[in-house]
Amino acid sequence: MNIAILGFGTVGTGVYKIIEKAKRQTQNLHVKHILIRKNKKPDLPEMTDDIDEILNDKDLDVVVEVLGGIEPAHQYILAALKHKKHVITANKAVIARYMDEFTKIAADNGVKFYFESSVGGGIPWIQGLERALRVDDVNKIQGIFNGTSNFILDQMKKTGKSFNDVLLQAQQLGYAEADPSADIDGLDVANKLCISVDIAYDIFVKPTDELPIFGIRNITGDDIAYFNQKGLTVKLMGKSHQRGNEFDYVVEPTLYHGDTLEANTTDNYNLISLHGETIGNLKFMGQGAGQLPTANAVIQDILDIFQHKEHLKREFMSNLKYRSDLTRSNYIVRSEIDCSKMFAKFDPCVRGDYLVIHQIPIGEMHRLMRQVLKQDGTAFMASLPDRKGGAAQ
Amino acid sequence: MNIAILGFGTVGTGVYKIIEKAKRQTQNLHVKHILIRKNKKPDLPEMTDDIDEILNDKDLDVVVEVLGGIEPAHQYILAALKHKKHVITANKAVIARYMDEFTKIAADNGVKFYFESSVGGGIPWIQGLERALRVDDVNKIQGIFNGTSNFILDQMKKTGKSFNDVLLQAQQLGYAEADPSADIDGLDVANKLCISVDIAYDIFVKPTDELPIFGIRNITGDDIAYFNQKGLTVKLMGKSHQRGNEFDYVVEPTLYHGDTLEANTTDNYNLISLHGETIGNLKFMGQGAGQLPTANAVIQDILDIFQHKEHLKREFMSNLKYRSDLTRSNYIVRSEIDCSKMFAKFDPCVRGDYLVIHQIPIGEMHRLMRQVLKQDGTAFMASLPDRKGGAAQ
C-alpha cells in the first residue's frame, strides 16, 4: 500500500520510522511521498514540496496529514479525498472544525477518513468508543485528554512549585509549546472532546461558545496545597453526559479523591473513560502524545484500511439536543472579590479562602464564572466530587 | 445471523438479553437455539437439550459456548467447529487448555474461534492486545485478571476484616463461589494469563507446573495492615515479561505504591496492561466479570464475525523459550519458621514479622516458597515494587 505523509515533523517522522522497521503486519506499507515545506531542501528521495505531484499519483492509496493547524491542512485533506485517496490525520483542530465536511466528502468519494491518533495519542480510544457503540448507547465520557496540562498539574502537586515555574520547565523539556494557550486554556481538550462527542452521539458539534471551557492558567501552588490537604487531586477534564434526548459537554478543572484512577494518572499520561449501558465503566490509559505512540495510532488506521476493517459510519442525524443545565455539580471557587451573592441560589459556603457552591447547573456555573473573571482575572474554579469517587455523574 | 447459545446461566442469559434488545448493530442477530440441561423443562421455544439438533442445523452460523468447565464444553466446541460453525466462548479454563487444538480445527474448517469475553470480561483486552501486536512486539503484560480476589483484597483493606470474613461476605453477595479455590489460589488468573501469553508471543502455554502460581489464601488482616502502613497495596497479579528469545510468566500477590493505577483498582474491577515498543504503556480498566459486561464482549465477537473483522492469526510457531529466572524481583515473606538461611543468597533482611528478600529470580523464589509452605502452611509472600511505581520490570 502506497502512502504519502504530509508534514515531516515529530509525528510524520515517527510514522516513517515505524514503517521503515517493517515489522509484523506493516511490511506491505510503503512511504512513496513526503510533503515538505516550499523551498526546503529534500533529505530523502521521497520528499517533495509539490502537493499536486502527490494528489495526481494514481498509485497512491493513503494520505497521512500531520501538518497540524487549520490551513492548508483542511484544503489538502479535501483535495486528497476528492482525488479518491484515503485520508488519515492526527490533526484534532482541523477534525473538530470540519468533521462533517470530511465525513461527507469521504463517503461521496468512496474512501475512508480515519483519525485514531487525534484523540488520546496511542490510546485506542476512537476504536474503543466505536466498538462500545456497536452494542451500547454511551451515556458518559470523561477524559484527561491533554498530556501537557496533566504534566503541569502533576508536577505542581509533586514539587509544590508555582504554575509559571512548572510551565517554564515543561517548555524547556519540550512538553509545552512557546504559546501554551491551547494546552492550558482547554482548547486542545475541547477539540478532543468534540471529536469524541461527534462519534458517541452521532452529532456534529464544534468547540464554539456553546461549550463551556475553563482552563488551568489561574491555578496557584496554594490551590494545589489546599486540595492536597483535603485528599483531592485536580485534573483538567473534558466531560460529557447524555440523558434521554439531551446531552451536555464541558471542559473544566475537576477534583478527584486520591483513590481514583484519575487522581493517579501522573506525568503526561492520558486517561479516557466511557460508560455504557451493558459494558459499565471502561477506562483507557496510555501515552496521549509523543512521537511513537501517536505514530503507532496512525499506523493502526493505515492497517485498518489495508485489512478492510471499516470504522463506524457517521451520519450526524441524531436528534440529541445540547442542554447547558442537564447536569448539576458542586464547585469550589477562589476569587478576590466576594461572589457569594452571585451564587446565592446555590448554597454558597465559605471554606477558608474558597467558596463552595452546591448543585449548580454546569452551564450556569460557567456563565457566572465569566462574570467573576471580568472583575478578578486571577479567579479559579474546579468542580468537586459529588460523592466518593469523582465528579458529578 | 443465526446463533445458538450453549448454556443459559448468567452469561448465556445476558447474551440473549442484549440480542433481544436489538439496538444499533445487533438487530441482525437472531438466537435460534439455546442448549439446556438434559430433562430440564424448556421455558422458551428456542430451548432444546439435544446438541445434535443444534450441530445439524444447516442455517446456524455461530455457536456461543457458555457452559463453563472442561467437558462437555471441549467436545461441543470441537464438534461445532467441525460442523463449520463459528465458535465464541467465554470459558477461559477450556481455552487455556485447548487453545492450540481449537485454533487448528477452526482453521481447518474455515471458521472462526473467538474468545474476547474469556479474559477481562467486558474489557476489550484480547482486541487491544491483538491490535498492539499488529505494530509492536509486546514485551510485558500484567493484570488484575480476577475480580473476586480483587474484591476480597479491597474489602480487607477498607474494613480491616479477616480473609475468611470477607470471603464469606463475597460468597453471600454471589461474587465468590462455594468452592472459591479457582479465584483465591490463582488458577483463574493462570488461565487468563496463559491465554494472553498465547496471543502476545504466538506460543501455546498451559497453566501447568511450569507456571509459578501463588494465591491469596494465606493473607491475613495483619499483612494488609502492615502493607498499608508502608503505603503499599497488594493485588493478585498475572504477569509476563519477554526479552530477546525468552519469556517468563507468574501469578503472585504483588505490592504497589498507593499512587499507581493498580493500587487504585477497587471493588471487583480488572485492570490489564501491556507494554509495547512504540505504544509504551497501555492500560485497560473495566468490569472483569458480571452478566452484561461479559455478554457484551460475546456480542462484540459475534459482530466481528458478522462484519468480517478478522482477528489476529495464531500459528504458535514462535521459538520463544520459557526461562524461570529471566526476571528478578524483591519479595516480602511472612512465615512462622526462620527461613533466612534458605534465602541466604538473596540478602534477606528482617523487617518486623517479615523477611525481605532481594533480587531473587521469580522461579527460584516460588521453588523456595514451596519448601517453606511444606513446613508452614500459613506462610505468605508478595513481590515488592522495584522502584517507584510497581513490581519488577
TrEMBL record, chains A, B:
Superkingdom of the organism of origin: Bacteria
Keywords: Amino-acid biosynthesis, Methionine biosynthesis, NADP, Oxidoreductase, Sodium, Threonine biosynthesis
One Pfam family linked to the record: NAD_binding_3
Key word Ribonucleoprotein present: no
Domain Aspartate/homoserine dehydrogenase NAD-binding, chain residue ranges per copy: 7-116
GO MF annotation, one: NADP binding
EC number(s) given by UniProt: 1.1.1.3
Recorded metabolic or biological pathway in which this protein acts: Amino-acid biosynthesis; L-threonine biosynthesis; L-threonine from L-aspartate: step 3/5; Amino-acid biosynthesis; L-methionine biosynthesis via de novo pathway; L-homoserine from L-aspartate: step 3/3
PROSITE patterns per UniProt: HOMOSER_DHGENASE
PANTHER family from the UniProt entry: HOMOSERINE DEHYDROGENASE
Family of this protein: Belongs to the homoserine dehydrogenase family.
Protein name: Homoserine dehydrogenase
Protein species of origin: Lentilactobacillus diolivorans DSM 14421
Taxonomic lineage of the native organism: Bacteria, Bacillati, Bacillota, Bacilli, Lactobacillales
